Amino acid sequence: MKLYLDSFDVESWKEWMPSGLFYGITTNPILAERAGLFYPSINWSSKMALAEKLNVKEFHIQLPSCDETAISFAAQRKEEAQNFNFNFVVKVPLTKEGVKLVPEMKRRGLSILMTACYHSKQYITADAIKADYIAPYFGRMEEAGLDAYDHMSLMKDLERHSTNRCKILVASIRSVEQMMTLAAQGHLYFTISPAIADELLSAELTVKAVSEFDEAAAKVEV
After folding, report:
1. Could you write out the DSSP letters of every residue in 186-220?
2. CA 72 to CA 208: how far, in whole Å?
3. Are the beta carbons of 17 and 86 closer than 8 angstroms?
């Protein structure tokens, strides 16, 4: 199983990446805005340098748009990423405009994640264009009234029969319980917020047991 930290807050990066829990970091314009960053003026080389220092294995960056500037944006980020020891992945929206960008990006050697997935049928598109990943927005699917678990189960079936092996990176997770159910379906890749990471490591009885161990270990023989 591989977990990714879904955050553009560098303090969260510094807190969580040294734990070894996360394989990589995923970012997008909304996460950047929440972190007080203006997407067009981000110093990507600086962020990549920090990511490498924190032992990130994969760094995911979303296109700011799907217009004529998208290819040059992706190419510039790939060139910058070559200076660092991680795999760079570009996130492309699952729209007609986004799909049309993929062949040129693949030709340039870019790893691709198709993002903003809301329906199991979109796995067929992502797999057919040989994307490396697809990111279904699980929590948002549920909130939109969709049967998210059914869509995820169908996507897993499609993945099992795929020849291109586009991997499912589940996003928009709202609770650890959702992760557990999806992992039981066979899903192995999740991107989660720092809050969900806290929930994942929170276990009251474990804390109580460790406290008892510490208390016993500290006792002085009389």
Report:
1. T--EEEE-HHHHHHHH--HHHHHHHHHHHHHHTPP
2. 54
3. no
β-strands 87-93, 58-62 pairing: parallel
Question: How would DSSP label each residue in 20-81?
Answer: T--SEEE--HHHHHHTT--GGG--HHHHHHHHHHTT-SEEEEE-S-SSTTHHHHHHHHHHHH
Calculate the CA 118 to chain-centre distance.
16
Q: What is the pLDDT, as a whole number, of residue 205?
A: 79
Structural domains in the chain, CATH included, are 2-217 (3.20.20.70)
The DSSP output letter for 165 is -
Handedness of CA 23, 164, 144, 33 (dihedral sign): positive
User: CA–CA separation, 52 vs 12, rounded Å?
Assistant: 15
The CA angle 22-42-100, to the nearest 5 degrees, is 80
Q: pLDDT, tens digit, for every residue of 47-69?
A: 999 999 999 999 999 999 999 89
218 band by pLDDT with thresholds 50, 70 and 90: confident
Among 79, 87, 80, 86, CA closest to 108: 79
- At residue 144, what is the residue type? A
Amino acid identity for residue 50 in this structure: L
Report pLDDT digits (tens) over 67-88.
Answer: 989 999 999 999 999 999 999 9
**What is the amino acid identity at position 78?**
K
Eight-class DSSP state of 87? E
Classify 128 as helix, strand or coil: helix
